[in-house]
């Protein structure tokens, strides 16, 4: 670790690391008996590995990598359904690039594109809207993927399509929400979690109160954090201090971007266009109550599930993980990536077997790129 | 994909659709400003915003924008986002190569 050059403010980082060590020692935390802190967001996972924070912090702190990487929690059956839509006559299927290499049961979107389907990587749902305007004779479908950070973008795009009467635009909605899987993990008797680093940009949309149950009902601290290394270290320290004081509160380390009550325009658009599904399937975690969103009947004309009879509007298949893939165990913190028999053998970023190896926000890809954590030595 | 990128709003392009031109690391890209708009859209010109998948989601100050951009470059996310913007432009032109 080139400490001075890697950190913009090495002095502040060193002071934070020293204070973390002091509080961790006070708690009696050790490598054998660590404090387990889950960073929920995949962006935080990436940042932790990029800066080697997992190795720099006191050895009594163990990071548990949470389910906050949208493509990592995408079941293979959803990828198959994307391909089913994309291969229909006249369809232009649009998606964020992140989803292109996620393996389906037979192929990925990238492979389907190579085989001739008109699948286009776009930066924004606005690109998909523009494609629909320019191609009135084609059906343009956007793969709506992601947590609350991206949900407003597809909600606003659907509202815009409705205003313009763009009948050839629809969204295949697979949006998911952060609080419900966290509740599911807290209810899992095998999980040991002492505190949470809360997602920054999801919270920019939803605010900090959706996490109140973590403190009030489960008595665990959660600190909403920014993405810079010193933000993360500061947040770890805030979690530890709460634990040391016997407290459990929702704190906001990233107040410069995250308003307490979120973004009202985004929340209104989400509420107008989407409603909760009774349950939604997560890769590695199974069905979780009320954890996914669907398009409200008022916007059914823009719902690809209804238009093409797929997903929860069609015959849904449940697929087992590919043989040897331990993404589920890694996702729930029960296994470190390097302990998976396929890690680096049958599963690499170039030829991923499991979704955690696909995205830069996935724990396996992060281990692969930056080297494993101390806990996995 | 959740990280977003800072950009500076330089012009309002289509007020009826809440669209503005933003400059992101030297690249111009039309973005939706509905989530950060106040009473006067014109007041946004010159301001910095965190842009997620084509939508300005939060106004930030210039120093925060510079720090965030630097962190995103460290993570390789800034380069990736700019590449995705170019992909988006290419997607409008046609189906592209079947990789």
TrEMBL record, chain B:
| Protein name, entry field | Hydrogenase maturation factor HypC
Q: Could you say which protein family the record assigns here? A: Belongs to the HupF/HypC family.
Q: Which GO terms describe its molecular function?
A: carbon dioxide binding; iron ion binding
Its function? Involved in the maturation of [NiFe] hydrogenases. Involved in the biosynthesis of the Fe(CN)(2)CO cofactor.
| Taxon lineage | Bacteria, Pseudomonadati, Pseudomonadota, Alphaproteobacteria, Rhodobacterales
Q: Which PANTHER family match?
A: HYDROGENASE MATURATION FACTOR HYBG
The biological process GO terms on file are:
protein maturation
SUPFAM superfamilies for this protein = HupF/HypC-like
